[in-house]
Each structure stands twice: as C-alpha cells, then as structure tokens.
UniProtKB/TrEMBL annotation:
Name of this chain's protein: Uncharacterized protein
Keyword annotations: Membrane, Transmembrane, Transmembrane helix
Compositional bias segments (type: Pro residues): 48-63
Ranges where the record places region Disordered: 48-67
Transmembrane portions of the chain: 18-36, 89-110
Length: 113
C-alpha cells in the first residue's frame, strides 16, 4: 500500500510536464515581449537634435572664438547613440537570451522521462 506522501511515476511525470509547459510558455512570452519592444523601438520616430546655440558676437577688437556648434551637436548625437545602444538594445539582448534559455530549460524538462 502506498503512503500518502509518495507519488506514482505517472503523477510525477504529469507534474513535470505541466511545470515544463509553464516554463516553456514563460520563456516564449519573454522572447515575444522582447520582439514587440524592439519593434516599438525601431518604429519610434528618430529624435531630432536641438538647434545649435547662437554664436555670441565678439567684442570690437577681439578675435572671434572658433565656431564649436558642430562639435556640440556631434557630442549630443554621440550621447544619444550611446543611450540607445547601451541601455535599450543591450537590455533587449539580455532579455532575449534569458527568454531563450528559459524556454530551452522547459523543453529539456519536457523531454525527461
């Protein structure tokens, strides 16, 4: 006679299959979320750079300072690109890898007998 705490192999297999199915669906949902976020990120309009500040007029008799508006705009564009690559795309890559690993773990559990 089986004790109430022991489970039969078929019950254990069913529980493993259900857990594996939940893990697979969780991993696929995470990968799907990443794809929707990436789609929204790439469909978003490109932000425009702020206009260059006006160059102050030099005082009479003084030599004018070199125009640095292009350098300022290039620096601003570089910071925006670093923000895009550093935060958004890297976090999407990490989430995609995590979702794939979770789904693969669920598939591995599904295949165990």
């Amino acid at each position: 006679m089986a004790s109430p705490t022991t489970t039969t192999p078929s019950e254990s297999r069913l529980a493993t299959r259900l857990l594996a199915l939940v893990v697979i669906l969780l991993g696929l949902a995470l990968v799907g979320y990443v794809f929707f976020q990436a789609k929204a990120l790439f469909e978003a309009p490109t932000p425009t750079l702020p206009p260059a500040p006006p160059t102050p007029k030099p005082l009479p008799g003084a030599t004018p300072a070199p125009d640095n508006a292009v350098g300022t705009r290039a620096l601003e564009a570089g910071w925006r690109l670093a923000d895009l690559l550093g935060r958004r795309l890297l976090s999407l890559l990490v989430m995609c890898v995590a979702g794939s690993l979770i789904a693969a773990l669920g598939i591995r559990w599904w295949g165990k007998r």
